[in-house]
Amino acid sequence: MITSPHSAFSATRSRSALGGTQRTLTFDRLLINIGDDFNPDTGRFRCRFPGAYYFSFTVGKFPEKMLSVMLVKNGLEVQAMAYDGYRNQGRKVHSQSVMISLKLMDTVYLLLQESPNYAIYSNVGPYITFSGYLVYPESTSSLGYVNNHLSPPGLHLPGCPPPGDHQYNWRRRGAHEEPRSAFSVARTTSALGKSKGRREREALTFDVEYVNIGGHFNKTSGRFTCHFPGAYYFAFTVGKHPRRAVSVKLMTGRGEVKAMVFDEDRSLRREMQSQSLLLPLRRGETVWLYSQQEEGYAIYSNQGRFTTFSGFLVYPDSESLDRNFS
């Protein structure tokens, strides 16, 4: 009997770290490590089973220091980051999550900005966590490594092939496999509200595609369309723009609000807001993000990919399974 591969970890750190003294974050408590693919002493996850993995991390901001922690794959390939540029006395936490596709022996870890102006805070609480797990393994009928290192047009960064350099196709799926649907995208540019009056709500669009299993997310329109009814998990993180408020809503259909993030502070600081939830979806339903379009609102992002949006099928309902195995 062939069993599906399992790989998952969750680790915490109870010590602070100053930029310049430690770059790769290590961890002193391992909560779970299915497959032993994560090494807390080095802070590195190494892929044994090619497929689509979901990673999430939360880091604490040190008083009077800035915060910048990057999720990195294979060296200097930045996938996403947590950032706070405000040097106040307060302590807070920031979170980020993304789904990326990994090949055999790929490594994933967290990097702290090496300048002493940056630091992370934790204690026995702990403030700092790092988790990851295999959502969809590759199979002989579902080879799927989607290029997740996209550089902007006309600019070729080291280790970042240009857009469209996809090596495999997640859409090929065997007739007897369970339904698969997942996406993870990011923005590398900010979005500024400009309208003074009411107008039709427009979905937030994205220019980086990490994975798009099934091809059910359209990054140009910014909308995910359900093809397999069931329970889906969605998570998003947005960056706050200096001197602008942020208000981003997770919407379904024609504009039903399911969850949101909000920060009305209009100071110069840049920081992040995150939100996540499970939703039951029927075939043909759409899910999208709406950023308030009036003047005074904005989201912030750059090549560090402050703004991300992910979703995947957790449990298909009986209709999806019946159609797939019939």
Automatic annotation (TrEMBL):
Keywords, in A-Z order: Secreted, Signal
Localization terms from the record: Secreted
Keyword Signal set for record: yes
Keyword match Signal: yes
Domain C1q, residue spans: 2-141, 176-320
InterPro entries per record: C1q_dom (IPR001073), Cerebellin_Synaptic_Org (IPR050822), Tumour_necrosis_fac-like_dom (IPR008983)
Gene Ontology CC annotation, any one: extracellular space
Domain of life: Eukaryota
Name of this protein: Complement C1q tumor necrosis factor-related protein 4
Native source species: Triplophysa tibetana
